[in-house]
Amino acid sequence: MSKPRTTLAILIIPLSYIIFFLFTTSPKPYYHTLFLSSSFSNNASISLHLHTLTRRPHIAGSLANAEAATHVLSTFTSSSLKSHIVTYHVSLTYPIHRSLILTPTQSSKPITFNLKQEPENNPYANEVTPTFHAYAKSGNVSGLVVYANYGTVEDFVRLRDELSVNVTGSIVIARYGKIFRGDIVKNAYKEGALGVVIYTDKRDYSGDEWFPVSRSMPPSGVQVGTVYNGLGDPTTPGWASVDGCERLSEEEVELSGDAMLIPSLPISAEDGEVILKSIVGDDGDLVGPGPGILNLSYVGETVIAKIENVIGVIQGEEEPDRYVILGNHRDAWTFGAVDPNSGTAIAERFDKLQKIGWKPRRTIILCNWDAEEYALIGSTEWVEDNREMLSSRAVAYLNVDCAVSGPGFYASATPQLDELIKLAAQEVRDPDNTTQTIYDSWIGSSNSGVIGRLGGGGSDYASFVQHVGVPAVDMRFGKDYPVYHSMYDDFTWMEKFGDPMFHRHVAMASVFGLVALRLADEEFLPFNYISYASELKKSVKDLEKEKLGHDIDVSQLLKAIEDLSTAAQAINTEKQAIKGVLKVRELNDRLMMAERALTDRDGLSERPWYKHLIYGPSKYNDYGTKSFPGVDDAIDNAKKLNTKASWENVQHQIWRVSRAIKHASLVLKGDLT
Ligand SMILES: *[C@@H]1O[C@H](CO)[C@@H](O)[C@H](O)[C@H]1NC(C)=O
Ligand SMILES: *[C@@H]1O[C@H](CO)[C@@H](O)[C@H](O)[C@H]1NC(C)=O
Ligand SMILES: *[C@@H]1O[C@H](CO)[C@@H](O)[C@H](O)[C@H]1NC(C)=O
Ligand SMILES: *[C@@H]1O[C@H](CO)[C@@H](O)[C@H](O)[C@H]1NC(C)=O
Ligand SMILES: *[C@@H]1O[C@H](CO)[C@@H](O)[C@H](O)[C@H]1NC(C)=O
């Protein structure tokens, strides 16, 4: 996108638009093409907004984050969006006191760690919140150190069964990189550990050089983050945290099973290395316990803080009561440069389209979420607040979180959106190889165009998909991102390594915006349930591997999927013949509601908030996505107990999934039985 071409495009487009406008009455595809043109993609404006939003650290509940909300609100308002702020009052935690002392051997002098990240040249570094784990339990603990690798269930099993290490009474040190940090703490707690420190291992996040010389994490860099395992405000599970609402007490939150019951701290690579030197194991294997002893002290304060979601609306012209919802979060543990500001970029592009006459068919809602980092709180409270309206009116939810951290396109979605995402990726050039489209680079890449699924708890799509059953997509540019949740995730890092010319941001806004435009404007919702059925078939294949020779019957499940496939083909054909506003609307409603049918009123056993029976988080890694999470839970339980009843429960859970899929095909058919 060189300068001369941009200038030319600016000259040509208004002219061609005028010509086009004279000869057509339905110019929607034309607007979509225009949306992708270079005159609509402004890397300078994206860079400027990112600079403004990331100038200071803006953790949820802080003044800086309220100021960032004001900035987003004014950008939305000046982009002709009808905008407002939705406030919730939620339980957040901040660190008050932290200390970590290592006594390497009985005879050696204790080492006190300073728990500080070495400031890079950033004038607001002193405003960064001290490193901590949000919602960690307060307490002072000490014990011999045990090394637990990545802290997975398998790591702890190996410690116990192969290495005969008794974790009870120890302080566990584990490294980041494989599972959600809350699950590391939970696994350590279950084995009897008194406290946990989680460090950033150089092998996973750094090389011989680091930021600001390279994109890697500096030795003093610390990945902070939440250790709470649930979604939304811990004191209001299942309902919205409006001012003065009913709340659980601290004791009730602890009993919920999602709160951590032992203290933990995140630490740097260099502190981790010092601690590891104090551990000896069999045959030189790094294990422990000890002889090093760690004294860990953490005191956090819990406050009910005000959080603000900024909402901007473009009213749909023909179907104002159908919502296409776009979201990204605003709060950040530190400067949050990789955090998206695509929201503001999209708002400005939609504004340009509106100024030349475009009006969406359906309503587009832009959501700038708060307190995502703590427990996806802003989005979850809003979804809980508006559950019935969303359930009857939301067409789809589009999410970006770490929108850009490097080259390469990645997407996850509910499967009826797969085709649409691929089509959109075919319309935009790859910013890192402009001779081909994003789609070409994507299918040529190591992940060969595979679309992930949205069962994990990684970002704000979770409540939409897993609680209400709204079709959704999550997109990003760039995969690994070593300075994640550290104070080095700032504008300088982005400018130097994440996206030097902001062309990846522009491309992301193009794909994301195009998916939104098609969902908002096309007469028939661009959903294809045939891909859903084939995804489900794949999941059944995976499931069959897990049966372990037990007498589990999946034939009902396969039959339900076959019916879904037939219904999906039928509705795709029906589309071609249908005419008349009400008939189109009725067909679209079936496409919209089929995803809802995959949810169940009672939710997953023992995890009733999770209503979706097809996609949910793994019980052992909140970042991990599971197909048929209820069946997965049951299989896991049956493997442990190996009783007749526990295997019968696996069959029961398969029946539940089969019924949900059957309901979805009935909805697609639009017939009563
Ligand atoms: C832990 O130690 C800190 C600092 O010495 C102290 O302020 C705090 O009250 C102690 N907490 C508990 C639960 O003993
Ligand atoms: C581990 O140690 C704890 C406390 O020292 C003890 O109660 C427990 O029985 C030990 N477990 C095993 C399996 O040895
Ligand atoms: C660590 O805690 C233990 C138990 O409370 C205490 O005896 C010991 O003195 C502490 N060590 C240091 C270096 O503070
Ligand atoms: C860019 O795309 C072309 C095909 O259009 C391909 O031949 C070339 O290898 C790609 N370049 C890089 C650096 O990936
Ligand atoms: C935007 O892109 C142009 C090249 O297309 C580049 O010269 C310019 O520096 C970029 N702007 C920013 C803010 O990176």
Automatic annotation (TrEMBL):
GO terms for cellular component: endoplasmic reticulum membrane. Residues 143-209 form the PA domain. Residues 309-492 form the Peptidase M28 domain. It is found in: Endoplasmic reticulum membrane. It is a single-pass type II membrane protein. Keywords: Glycoprotein, Hydrolase, Membrane, Metal-binding, Metalloprotease, Protease, Signal-anchor, Transmembrane, Transmembrane helix, Zinc. Its cofactor is Zn(2+). GO terms for biological process: proteolysis; regulation of meristem growth. GO terms for molecular function: metal ion binding; metallocarboxypeptidase activity. It catalyses: Release of an unsubstituted, C-terminal glutamyl residue, typically from Ac-Asp-Glu or folylpoly-gamma-glutamates. This is glutamate carboxypeptidase II. It comes from Arabis alpina (Alpine rock-cress). The lineage of its organism: Eukaryota, Viridiplantae, Streptophyta, Embryophyta, Tracheophyta.
